[in-house]
Specification:
single chain, about 270 residues, alpha/beta, 5-stranded mixed sheet, 9 helices, elongated
């Protein structure tokens, strides 16, 4: 009897080992690895969120039969989720390039000089607090996690975000209460890729918008107007900061013209 148990146990262990290595049975030690890692570039961590909508899918179901035939029907509906916008592989590559560019430019003296030189006005947040927020972003070991939401719109706009105070500087450190939410226009990203920008240059063009929208989520604002040039030439902090990031501190008021607000078109296009 003991021999039989030992033989059966040995056979079970052998089958389990072979099956697991062949892919028939899950390796429970590796289950945690099946969850995809967060996308990140050092201090910036973000997640892609599909845009979905609820749609009713209905069918007629018999509610009453008479002599084997249905004489009354009722409508039965299932509320199903449908994906209406999602980041594809190229969109994600452009976003990662944009985040890398922001990360690399944040602490550069040329970018700070660009902001100091061109900012004239502040809206929503005081001048001192704006400077403190910027320093906190530069010196933080990590930023609040960013949710990226896609939409498709054939306009000049790269993205948008609600005006909220979700992150802030306090006692020299960066704090936050919630995730940052930024909406990005997939149609605008596609145009850049198709117009010969290449992934890196398209990412650079998008970086100013992402930083601009991040500042909106920190409470920084600018006047509501269709004239992005007017906003930039007026020197509003949130617009100028985005452009200085995008242009690596090299843009000036005569050439940049508020492109982080308008959608970021870097002249001239070129392949990576």
């Amino acid at each position: 009897m003991k021999k039989t148990i030992v033989i059966l146990a040995t056979l079970f262990m052998l089958i389990t080992t072979v099956s697991t290595s062949s892919g028939f049975l899950p390796n429970f030690r590796n289950l945690k690895r099946l969850k995809p890692p967060s996308i990140k570039v050092d201090k910036i961590i973000w997640d892609y969120k599909n845009k979905t909508t609820k749609q009713n899918k209905c069918r007629d179901k018999c509610a009453e039969k008479w002599l084997g035939k249905c004489v009354r029907y009722k409508k039965v509906c299932n509320n199903r989720t449908k994906i209406i916008a999602a980041f594809n592989k190229n969109h994600k590559r452009v976003v990662k390039s944009a985040m890398s560019h922001i990360q690399n430019q944040m602490g550069r003296s040329a970018v700070r000089s660009c902001i100091d030189k061109h900012v004239k006005r502040y809206k929503g947040i005081s001048k001192k607090q704006a400077r403190d927020d910027l320093n906190a972003l530069i010196n933080a070991s990590r930023w609040p996690r960013i949710n990226l939401h896609p939409f498709n719109e054939n306009t000049n706009t790269n993205g948008w975000a609600y005006l909220e105070r979700k992150a802030w500087e306090k006692n020299g450190k960066l704090g936050w209460k919630n995730r940052i939410n930024i909406n990005l226009n997939l149609t605008a990203i596609d145009k850049k890729i198709n117009n010969g920008y290449g992934i890196t240059k398209a990412g650079k063009a998008l970086s100013g918008t992402i930083f601009h929208e991040l500042l909106h989520q920190m409470g920084h604002s600018h006047p509501d107007t269709d004239s992005y040039k007017k906003n930039y030439e007026s020197g509003y902090f949130v617009v100028v900061a985005g452009d200085c990031i995008m242009y690596s501190g090299a843009g000036d008021r005569n050439t940049a013209k508020g492109l982080s607000l308008a959608g970021g078109q870097l002249p001239p296009p070129g392949r990576d």
